[in-house]
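Weekly modeling sync, notes
Attendees: S.R. (lead), two postdocs, one rotation student

Agenda item 3: backlog of single-chain predictions. S.R. asked that every request posted to the team notebook include the full sequence so nobody has to chase files. The rotation student volunteered to paste the first one in as an example of the format we agreed on. Action items at the bottom.

Example entry:
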Amino acid sequence: MSPYRKLKSSDWTKSLLFIGIYVAVISVTAFILLVTYWFVWLAIVAAGLFLIVLWHKKSTAYHCPKCDNEFEISFLTDFFSPHGVTKNRGGWTYLKCPKCGNTTKMEILVKKKEIATEAEK
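Predicted structure, as returned to the notebook:
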């Protein structure tokens, strides 16, 4: 049994909520800080981006369509890799499979919560 599952609507809602909060914080703080304290605003933007990528890295894995390998990637790979969405509400990241070497759009999977709680015990 795989420790990962396909994306659900609740995963999309959660992702959009996090991104929406991030954009709202950046927008509000831009009006307050950008002219005088631009360096503080840049720190807020960088910290928020770091937290979103860290959350994404810790909660997702990837599926290779060629060899069916399921794997996780590093923070920097997640940060710099191109990401996108398909018409059927699936997400993808352009990666190289560590098993077969295939470089393509890998399907995004979500880590199951039961596995994460068992690992913490």
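Discussion: group reviewed the output briefly. The CA atoms of residues 52 and 95 lie 19 Å apart.
Action items: rotation student to repeat for the remaining queue; S.R. to check formatting next week.
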